[in-house]
Design the sequence.
C-alpha cells in the first residue's frame, strides 16, 4: 500500500546516512528537507518563458475514513478498497520498450519470466518495461557515469534527496520540456497527474519550465516517536509543553544502570524547531535571504543540545553507531531508548509493530509559546523523458505516469500495489494481503516513479495507529514553516552545498558532543558564509 | 641481495653471464628476447587500455568538469582546483592526519604479519599450523560496517566492557569516541582485520627459503634465534622491502570506508583523511575536477616516496621494486 | 605426525606452551566475530533486541534468515555468476600476471626497464571512474561479463610480487635449462612454474578474492540485474537496513530480523573462499627447492 512505499523510501534514505555516515547522517536526516533539495526557479537565463504550474483537480478516489487536507494532512484508510474506481480508460502504452532508470532500495526484482507482477504490468500498460535498477547507495556513482557515457535510458527517475549536480542545466540539455503538455489546464488530459499537489510539482519545475513529474512525499519533516510505556513507567509526561518539561521528561526516563536512555541520536533539528529557528532560510521584506544559522536562536538551540548531552540523557553510543538505524530501532523496540527522532516515513515501521505502544510528540515552543514545524520538500523523485520531439511518445510517457499516479484505492493503484491474485496477494476476510512473492516482485520499483499524495493505511499495526498520526498532522499543519529557498536555484548550493553542509554539521556535532564550546559556532558560521553561504543568499535573492 | 658473511649465499650473484654480454646487435637481441616481449604483451595492452588511456581523462583536474557537457564542453579552469585544495586549512589537516596514520600503521601494523608468519613457521604440528593459518585470515572478509559494529558492541560506550564497568560502579572508558586515541583505534582495527591476511605473502617467502641453509646453520651450531636472524630474516628480506615500498606508494590511502564510518564520532579534526576530504568536497557535490586533482596529487606524492624508498633500498644493497 | 626436520632441535616445553598460548589467543580474537556472525544469523528478534543488535551465543536456533535469503531472490543465481566470473577471471588474470612477471624478470632483456616502469607507474596513478567507464563502453563491453574480468585483470602489485619471487629462483636452474637448449617458454614451464607454486597460490588467492568481492565493476557496467554477481546483490541486502519492514505487514508472517539476514549473507559470501583456502595453504607451505631439484 501507499504507506508502504512511503515508508520504504525515506526511511531508507535515512538508512543511507546510517550506512555511510553514522552520525552526520543524523543532521541530514533531521528534516528530510534539511540537507537535500533539488533546484527550481530561475538561474539560467536561457530558459523559455516561465509557465504556470499544472492546475490541481482533485482526483477520483474512494472515500477515506478520515479526509486529509490540501495543506498536506494525509487521508486515512482502514484497508485497501477492493472495489475502487477505474480512473484510466483506453490504451496506455503502444507495445514498445519502456527503458526506465529507477533508484531502488530492495533487492533486484526477479527476472521477467519468473515475475508475474512484472508480466501483469506489461500487459496492463501494454509495454515492455525494461528497468535499469540503481541501488540507492550507489546512485551518485552510477548516475554520473551514465550521463558521461550518454547512456541514460529514455526515461529517468531522479530522487530529489540525491541532489543531482546541476539538475536544471542537465534537464535543459538532455530532457524534454513538458510544459506544453502539463502547464495550467493542459494537465487535465491526465486526470491522475492533475491530482498531484503543487508542493510535488515544484520539484520538477526547473528554470520556470516543467521537466519532471513528481512522486509526492509527505510535507512534514521529522517526528519524535515516544515509547509511552517506558515514559509512563518512569512517571513522566510524554507530551511536554515547554523546554523545562522536555528536560524533565528526558531526565526522568534515563536510567544508566538499566541501560535506558532518553535519546540515541542527534535531535538538533527538533531543538531548533523548539527554539523557533527558521527552516534553512528567511526571506526578508526587501527580498534578501538570511540563513537560519544566523538566526539569534540557532546557537542557543545547539547549546541546549550540548547541555542535554552533558546531562547524560543520551545513549553512550550516540557518538558512534547509534545512527545505525537497525540498532537504534532495536533499542527503541526493546525499551532502551525512550524516544527516537526520525523521518516522517519511519512511522510505517513503528506503526506495523502491533506490540509497540507509542505516540508522536507534538511540536511546542521553548517557553510554551508558538511551535514551528519545518516542511519537507514535497517530493521523493521526479521522472523525466530524454529529449524528443515525438509528440506521440511524450503523450504515451505521460499516460504511463498517469496510470502509475492513480490515487490510493483505485483499480490502477490496486494493480500496482498488489499484482496477481493468488500469487502476489491473497484475499482474507475481504482484505488483500501481499505474499512474500508479491513483495519481492514489487522491487521492480515502478511504483516509485510518479504519484500523488500518500495516505495512512496500516491495518496490521496497533488499532488506531493511523488516527494517531492523522491527529498529529492536523495539529502540526498550522505550525508548518516552509523554507523560502526551497525551490529556488543557487549554483553555489548545487555545486558546493553538500560540502558546506558537512562543515556545519561537523561544527554542530562537535558542540553537541562537548568537544567544542557553543561559541565556536560563531566562527564556523563565518566560515560557512564566506565559503559560499553568502553567495547562496545572493543567488536566492536573484532567483525568480 | 645482501648476504650474511658467516653463511653460504642465499643466491648466486644476480647477474647472469648470458645477459652481461653487452653490445649485442639490436635485432639479435630482439630475436633473443621476443618470447619475453610476447609474454609481457597482454598485461601491457590491458594496462594501456584500462589505465593509461583513461588516465588522459585526468585533464579534468584542470576543468570544471560536468558529465553531461563532457571533456570538450566543460570549462577549463587552470590550476583553480588545486589552489582551492591548497587554500583550505581542512585539506592540510586531512593530509597531516593521513601522514600520521600511515606512519603509525607502518610502525605498528606492518611488522605484525611478518612476526606472525615467522611464529607460524615454527609450529611443527601440521594440523595446528593449518588450522591457525586457515583461521587468522578470516576477518579480512568481513566488511568494515560489520567490524566497526562489533568493536562498538565490545568497546563502545554501551558495549560489553563499559556495561560491566558501569554495573560495578566504575567509570566507563571512552574508546570509540576519543579523538586523542582515534588513530591507535584505527590501527588496532586494521591489524585485527588484515594482519592474518598479510601473513600469506610472508609465509610464501619463508617457504621459498632453501632448507639446506637451515641445515648448514644448525651444523654450524646456530640456535633457533640465530637461525631466525641469519637465515629466515635475510631470506624474507627482499619481500619485506618490496612490501614496504609498495605500502609507501600507497601511503596517502588509508582505509576510506573504515574512517568514513567512524569519522563523525571523533570529528574531522582527528579523523579527516585525504580520501574522506575528497569525498565530502569532491564526490558528494559532483566536483569531479577537484576529486581528480586530489587523485593526481596523491599520485605525485606516492611517486616521490617510492623513488626515495627505492633509492634507499639500493643504498642498503636491496633489490627494491626495480633497479636501474 | 610430526614433520620436524632433523636439523631442528627439540624446543623447550616452555617455548611450546608460550607459543600455544599466543596462537590460541590470536585465534580466539579472530574467531569471535565469526561466532557473532553465525549466532546472529540464527537468532530471534527478541534476542537481538535484548542484546542491542548482535548476539554472541544464541539461545534458540532459527534458520528463517537463510530461508528468507533464498526464497524467491536472485541470491542463488548470483552465486553461480560470481563463481563463474571468479574462476574465469582468476585463470585469465593469473596467466597475464605470471607471463608478465617472467617477461619482466630478466634484467638485461630488451625494453625491460621501459616496460617495467610502464607497469610500475600504474601503481601510483589510478584513472578516474568516468574515463574507465567510457573505455569499457567504447570497447563494447558494457553489459557483458568481460567488463568484470578484463579491466581489473592486470595489477602491477601482483606482477611485482611474482617477479620478486621469480628473481629469487637460483640461477643455476635457468642456466642448466638453457644448456639443455630450452627456450623461454620451456623455461617458464619447467623452471619458473614448478618453483613458483607458493607465490602463484598466494597471488591467485589475491586475484580470486578481488574478483569475488568486486561489486563496483558490476554496479557500473551491468544494467541488467539478472547478471548481477553475489556481492552486488548482497550489497542491496546489507545496505538496505529495512529489508524486512514490508514483510512485517503480512499478518501471521514473522519476518526474520534484519540483522540475522545480513549476517547470514556474510556467512554465505565467505563460505566459498573458506572452501578454497585449504587447497592453497598446501602449496604455500611447500618448500620450493625440494620440488625444483627433482624436476
Sequence:
Amino acid at each position: 500500500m501507499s504507506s508502504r512505499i512511503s515508508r520504504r523510501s525515506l526511511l531508507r534514505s535515512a538508512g543511507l546516512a546510517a550506512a555511510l555516515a553514522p552520525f552526520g547522517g543524523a543532521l541530514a536526516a533531521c528534516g528530510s528537507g534539511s540537507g537535500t533539495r533539488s533546484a527550481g526557479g530561475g538561474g539560467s537565463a536561457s530558459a523559455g518563458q516561465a509557465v504556470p504550474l499544472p492546475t490541481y483537480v482533485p482526483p477520483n478516489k474512494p472515500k477515506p475514513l478520515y479526509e486529509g487536507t490540501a495543506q498536506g494532512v494525509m487521508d486515512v484508510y482502514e484497508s485497501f478498497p477492493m472495489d475502487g474506481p477505474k480512473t484510466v480508460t483506453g490504451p496506455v502504452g503502444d507495445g514498445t520498450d519502456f527503458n526506465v532508470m529507477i533508484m531502488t532500495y530492495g533487492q533486484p526484482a526477479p527476472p521477467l519470466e519468473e515475475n508475474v507482477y512484472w508480466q501483469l504490468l506489461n500487459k496492463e500498460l501494454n509495454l515492455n518495461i525494461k528497468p535499469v535498477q540503481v541501488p540507492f547507495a550507489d546512485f551518485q556513482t552510477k548516475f554520473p557515469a551514465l550521463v558521461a557515457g550518454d547512456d541514460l535510458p529514455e526515461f529517468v527517475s531522479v530522487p530529489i534527496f540525491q541532489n543531482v549536480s546541476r539538475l536544471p542545466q542537465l534537464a535543459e540539455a538532455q530532457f524534454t520540456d513538458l510544459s506544453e503538455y502539463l502547464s495550467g489546464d493542459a494537465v487535465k488530459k491526465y486526470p491522475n497527474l492533475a491530482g498531484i499537489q503543487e508542493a510535488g510539482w515544484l520539484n520538477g519545475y526547473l528554470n520556470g519550465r516543467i521537466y519532471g513529474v513528481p512522486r509526492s512525499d509527505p510535507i512534514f519533516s521529522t517526528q519524535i516517536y515516544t515509547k509511552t510505556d517506558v515514559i509512563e513507567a518512569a512517571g513522566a509526561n510524554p507530551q511536554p509543553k515547554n523546554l523545562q518539561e522536555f528536560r524533565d521528561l528526558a531526565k526522568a526516563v534515563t536510567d544508566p544502570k538499566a541501560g535506558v536512555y532518553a535519546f540515541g541520536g542527534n535531535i538538533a533539528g527538533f531543538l531548533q524547531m523548539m527554539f523557533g529557528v527558521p527552516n534553512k532560510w528567511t526571506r526578508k521584506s526587501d527580498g534578501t535571504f538570511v540563513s537560519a544559522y544566523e538566526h539569534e536562536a540557532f546557537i542557543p538551540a545547539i547549546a541546549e543540545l550540548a547541555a542535554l548531552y552533558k546531562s547524560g540523557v543520551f545513549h553512550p553510543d550516540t557518538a558512534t553507531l547509534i545512527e545505525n538505524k537497525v540498532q537504534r530501532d532495536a533499542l527503541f523496540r526493546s525499551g532502551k531508548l525512550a524516544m527516537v527522532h526520525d523521518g516522517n516515513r519511519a512511522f510505517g515501521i513503528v506503526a506495523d509493530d502491533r506490540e509497540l505502544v507509542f505516540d508522536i510528540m507534538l511540536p511546542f515552543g521553548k517557553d510554551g509559546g508558538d511551535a514551528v514545524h519545518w516542511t519537507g520538500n514535497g517530493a521523493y523523485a521526479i521522472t523525466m523523458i530524454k529529449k524528443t520531439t515525438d509528440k506521440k511518445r511524450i503523450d504515451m510517457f505521460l499516460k504511463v505516469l498517469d496510470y502509475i499516479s492513480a490515487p490510493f484505492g483505485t483499480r490502477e493503484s490496486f494493480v500496482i500495489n498488489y499484482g496477481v491474485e493468488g500469487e502476489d496477494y491473497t484475499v482474507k476476510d475481504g482484505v488483500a494481503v501481499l505474499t512474500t512473492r508479491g513483495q519481492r516482485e514489487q522491487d521492480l520499483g515502478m511504483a516509485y516513479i510518479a504519484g500523488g499524495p500518500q495516505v495512512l493505511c496500516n491495518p496490521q499495526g496497533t488499532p488506531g495507529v493511523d488516527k494517531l498520526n492523522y491527529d498529529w498532522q492536523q495539529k502540526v499543519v498550522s505550525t508548518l514553516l516552509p523554507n523560502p529557498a526551497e525551490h529556488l536555484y543557487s549554483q553555489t548550493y548545487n555545486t558546493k552545498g553538500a560540502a558546506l553542509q558537512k562543515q556545519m554539521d561537523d561544527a554542530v556535532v562537535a558542540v553537541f558532543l562537548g568537544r567544542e564550546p557553543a561559541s565556536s559556532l560563531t566562527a564556523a558560521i563565518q566560515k560557512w558564509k564566506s565559503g559560499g553561504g553568502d553567495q547562496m543568499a545572493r543567488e536566492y535573492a536573484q532567483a525568480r | 641481495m645482501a648476504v650474511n658473511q658467516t653463511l653460504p649465499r642465499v643466491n648466486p650473484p644476480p647477474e647472469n653471464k648470458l645477459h652481461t654480454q653487452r653490445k649485442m646487435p639490436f635485432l639479435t637481441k630482439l630475436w633473443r628476447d621476443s618470447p619475453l616481449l610476447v609474454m609481457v604483451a597482454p598485461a601491457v595492452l590491458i594496462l594501456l587500455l584500462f589505465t593509461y588511456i583513461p588516465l588522459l581523462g585526468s585533464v579534468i583536474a584542470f576543468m570544471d568538469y560536468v558529465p553531461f557537457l563532457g571533456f570538450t564542453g566543460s570549462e577549463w579552469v587552470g590550476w583553480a582546483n588545486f589552489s582551492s585544495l591548497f587554500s583550505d586549512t581542512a585539506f592540510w589537516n586531512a593530509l597531516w592526519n593521513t601522514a600520521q596514520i600511515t606512519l603509525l600503521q607502518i610502525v605498528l601494523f606492518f611488522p605484525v604479519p611478518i612476526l606472525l608468519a615467522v611464529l607460524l613457521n615454527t609450529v611443527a604440528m601440521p594440523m595446528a599450523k593449518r588450522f591457525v593459518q586457515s583461521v587468522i585470515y578470516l576477518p579480512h572478509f568481513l566488511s568494515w560496517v560489520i567490524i566497526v559494529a562489533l568493536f562498538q558492541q565490545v568497546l563502545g560506550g554501551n558495549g560489553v566492557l563499559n556495561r560491566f564497568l558501569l554495573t560495578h560502579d566504575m567509570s566507563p572508558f571512552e574508546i570509540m569516541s576519543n579523538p586523542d586515541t582515534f588513530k591507535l583505534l584505527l590501527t588496532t582495527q586494521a591489524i585485527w582485520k588484515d594482519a592474518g591476511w598479510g601473513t600469506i605473502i610472508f609465509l610464501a617467502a619463508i617457504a621459498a627459503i632453501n632448507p639446506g641453509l637451515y641445515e648448514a646453520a644448525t651444523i654450524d651450531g646456530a640456535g633457533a634465534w640465530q637461525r631466525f636472524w641469519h637465515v629466515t630474516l635475510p631470506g624474507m628480506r627482499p619481500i619485506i622491502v618490496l612490501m614496504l615500498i609498495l605500502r609507501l606508494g600507497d601511503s596517502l590511502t588509508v582505509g576510506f570506508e573504515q574512517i568514513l564510518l567512524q569519522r563523525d564520532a571523533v570529528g574531522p579534526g582527528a579523523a579527516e583523511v585525504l580520501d574522506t576530504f575528497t569525498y565530502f568536497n569532491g564526490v558528494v557535490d559532483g566536483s569531479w575536477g577537484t576529486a581528480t586533482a586530489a587523485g593526481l596529487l596523491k599520485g605525485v606524492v606516492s611517486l616521490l616516496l617510492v623513488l626515495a624508498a627505492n633509492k634507499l633500498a639500493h643504498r642498503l644493497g636491496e633489490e627494491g621494486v626495480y633497479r636501474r | 605426525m610430526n614433520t620436524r626436520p632433523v636439523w631442528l632441535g627439540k624446543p623447550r616445553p616452555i617455548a611450546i606452551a608460550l607459543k600455544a598460548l599466543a596462537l590460541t589467543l590470536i585465534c580466539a580474537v579472530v574467531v569471535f566475530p565469526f561466532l557473532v556472525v553465525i549466532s546472529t544469523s540464527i537468532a530471534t528478534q527478541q534476542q537481538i533486541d535484548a542484546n542491542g543488535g548482535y548476539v554472541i551465543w544464541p539461545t534458540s536456533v532459527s534458520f528463517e534468515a537463510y530461508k528468507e535469503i533464498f526464497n524467491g531472490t536472485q541470491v542463488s543465481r548470483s552465486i553461480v555468476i560470481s563463481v563463474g566470473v571468479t574462476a574465469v577471471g582468476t585463470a585469465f588474470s593469473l596467466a597475464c600476471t605470471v607471463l608478465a612477471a617472467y617477461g619482466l624478470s630478466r634484467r638485461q632483456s630488451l625494453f625491460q626497464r621501459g616496460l617495467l616502469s610502464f607497469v610500475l607507474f600504474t601503481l601510483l596513478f589510478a584513472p578516474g571512474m568516468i574515463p574507465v567507464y567510457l573505455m569499457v563502453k567504447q570497447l563494447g563491453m558494457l553489459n557483458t561479463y568481460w567488463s568484470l574480468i578484463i579491466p581489473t585483470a592486470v595489477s602491477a602489485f601482483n606482477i611485482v610480487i611474482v617477479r620478486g619471487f621469480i628473481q629469487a629462483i637460483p640461477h643455476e636452474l635457468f642456466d642448466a635449462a638453457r644448456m639443455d637448449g630450452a627456450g623461454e617458454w620451456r623455461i617458464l614451464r619447467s623452471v619458473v612454474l614448478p618453483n613458483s607454486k607458493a607465490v602463484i597460490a598466494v597471488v591467485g588467492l589475491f586475484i580470486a578474492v578481488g574478483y569475488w568481492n568486486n561489486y563496483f565493476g558490476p554496479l557500473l557496467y551491468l544494467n541488467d540485474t539478472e547478471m548481477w554477481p553475489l556481492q552486488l546483490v548482497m550489497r542491496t541486502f546489507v545496505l538496505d537496513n529495512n529489508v524486512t519492514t514490508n514483510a512485517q505487514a503480512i499478518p501471521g508472517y514473522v519476518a526474520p530480523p534484519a540483522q540475522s539476514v545480513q549476517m547470514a549473507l556474510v556467512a554465505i559470501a565467505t563460505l566459498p573462499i573458506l572452501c578454497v583456502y585449504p587447497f592453497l595453504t598446501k602449496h604455500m607451505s611447500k618448500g620450493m627447492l625440494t620440488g625444483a631439484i627433482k624436476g
